[in-house]
Amino acid sequence: MSILPFDQREGVIWMNGALVPWKDARMHVLSHGLHYGGAVFEGERSYKGVIFKSREHSERFRKSAALLDYEIPYTVDQLMAAKDLVIKTNGTPDAYVRPVAWRGSEMMAVAAQHATIHVAIATWEWPSMFDMATKMKGIRLDVADYRRPDPMTAPCESKAAGLYMICTISKHKAERKGYADAMMLDWQGRVAECTGANIFFTRDGEIHTPLADCFLNGITRQTVIDLARKRGMVVNERRIMPDELSGFVECFVCGTAAEVTPVAEIGPWRFQPGNISRTLVEDYSAAVQPA
Fold first, then answer.
1. Which of 59, 104, 190, 282 is 20–30 Å from 26 (CA)?
2. What is the pLDDT of residues 231-266, one digit of tens each?
3. pTM of the full predicted structure?
4. Are the beta carbons of 28 and 76 closer than 8 angstroms?
5. CA–CA–CA angle 139, 145, 146 (5° rounding)
6. Are both 50 and 171 inside the same structural domain?
7. Are residues 195 and 272 in the same domain?
8. SS3 68
9. Catalytic annotation, residues
């Protein structure tokens, strides 16, 4: 995977309806989205040139913008076609796909009703992160200080840039301590999610996962729940308190980037990656592959 800074890579980016050279895809420093956190984005994966659940991601992209009080000026079908065009033009069949939208520079105050809405789509090479043997060792998670906010204080169903500020802070702190990521609690002290992935636990052959009412109900999360239920596994979406963690056997996280990744440790709690985690790692890997 390239280590070049993201503003210095080669290829094209789709921006406001046209392909532009990668290095020319720029925004002004006084864009409203930069100053007031009003950008929305998606994280998607292309496998062998086919984006997994592309339509669902584009639908959520438009919903995220609507929750922030603006409209993406492209239809779902137009967004899907643009993503496919960028992948094909860049020659990156196994790629991470990043649509992003933001308010422009026409207004520079809290209000920005008349700002132009800009949309860009970039792709870059992204192979699978770990082989099975490495994945099944499990990653280590810290426990974040910041918590997911009360849903009455933020548009938690939007994949909005501003909602990730505390995630970045928490992940930085975790990595400085030698962890891969951090588990976040919600505003009432219940288990919520990781900084960029949803979290699951197992006990007595059943799966338990926090109720997604103050954080994003991830598309990968929904996929994993469907895969588990197709296997006949019981999936309990419910409130989970930290003091329950000592009673769980397995733990895994899931997201576009992480796919399904087992967890061996969360702060003082230990887990043993096992058959349920392995089955869902394998099932998810099979599900994302084009027919």
1. 59
2. 999 999 999 999 999 999 999 999 999 999 999 999
3. 0.95
4. no
5. 105
6. no
7. yes
8. coil
9. 159
